[in-house]
Amino acid sequence: MTSIIFFAASSIAAGDGEQITLDQILARADRWAASIVNLRIVYDHLSLPATNSPLVDWLAPPEHCDSLMLFARSEWIWADYDRLDLFEERSFYWFPGKIGYRTIHVFNGLKGETFHASYQKSPDEVEQLKELKLASWGGEKVINSIRAPLLGLYWGESGEWLPEVLAKWDWKVEGMEAILGEPCVRIATEHIVGTHPRLEILWLDLAHDFIPRRYQIPPTPSRKTGSDFVVDEVQQLEGGLWFPKRARLQYQTDPITNRLIVVTEARVNQTLDLTRFDPPIPVKGTIVSDKRIRPTEPPSATSPQLTSGWMIAIIGTAAILLAADLWLRKKGAEK
């Protein structure tokens, strides 16, 4: 693990002598995030050869390599103004007897509903909807899953973008470092997650909208696992917005896991297909769980529900009074 030296500084000088402050970093991140009204990205997860070396110490793999193996593909659609969030993940297997699957998680703020759909493929490659969970707005509004190409830009567990976490946590500007030849300003914060402290370090690219070129969570005595994320290649989207294109992710578990993330599609501020945010129609064999809360109007005095309810209550009361009268008469006769 590469050691990190901390400096008690609120600003640091760039190469031309300009002082970079946290306020400037936050303002730049705000402009980047504010330029996105909606976003759609598709990206592949590929397995990389096992290595314990830090990501920055080994070269990025070529685009076509025998050791690269595609094991999952993800799609994320997000829109702030309508509070729309769709995350779809498709897995692939190469082993006999294994079945690929696809899951879709959706939060539809327009309709106040969420749903989770899971599909499975049979051995003959026919995909079928296996489970559908429906819920109302009262459930989770954040789809709790990482967005791999946007690590350091978007925090999936809380649904927050970089400007929000910059304003929420106490960050320190630590120094200037080159990541893959690009000058970056390094900032760090330590905060509590659950009951354990977590250190998070970002290297922000000065020449490309201050987007993270490296994002690291080192292991701690209370948190044995860590992660390291390095962006090897960036791209420009509509309006000149800089965005990650190829990146590597290392989970410092036992054994260490290395992944290559390749963005195959990325568009911002385009017309969205809103039908994607409606739940699929169940088929025979689908397990359906419907927890949606449908508002109902209170019944009127003349409604059949109220009338029948009153009739039941009256009949019940009459039966009680009749039983009491018979009991009293019997007691009187005994005397």
What features would you describe in this structure?
The chain has 335 residues and is of the alpha+beta class. It has two domains: 11-291, Clam (outer membrane lipoprotein receptor (LolB), chain A); 303-335. Helices cover 15% and strands 42% of the residues. It has helices at residues 22-34, 162-168, 304-334, and strands spanning 11-13, 19-21, 38-47, 69-79, 84-91, 101-108, 113-121, 127-136, 154-155, 160-161, 171-179, 182-193, 196-205, 212-217, 226-236, 242-252, 257-268, 287-291. Strand 1 (11-13) and strand 2 form a beta hairpin.
Helices and strands, in N-to-C order? EEHEEEEEEEEHEEEEEEEEH
* Global geometry: globular
Report the helical percentage: 10-25%
Helix-and-strand structural type: alpha+beta
Share of β-strand residues: 35-45%
Relevant CATH superfamily of the largest domain: Lipoprotein localisation LolA/LolB/LppX
- Tell me the number of structural domains: 2
The CATH level-2 architecture of the largest domain is identified as Clam
Radius of gyration: 29 Å
| Amino-to-carboxy terminus distance | 98 Å
- Reading off the top of the CATH hierarchy, the class of the largest domain is best stated as Mainly Beta
Largest sheet, in brief, is: 14 strands, mixed
Q: How many individual helices?
A: 3
Order the strands across the largest sheet as they lie in space. Answer: 11-12-13-14-15-16-17-3-4-5-6-7-8-18
User: Count the strands?
Assistant: 18
Poorly predicted runs are 1-11, 299-335
Roughly what is the average pLDDT, rounded to an integer?
A: 80
Q: Can you tell me the CATH topology of the largest domain?
A: outer membrane lipoprotein receptor (LolB), chain A
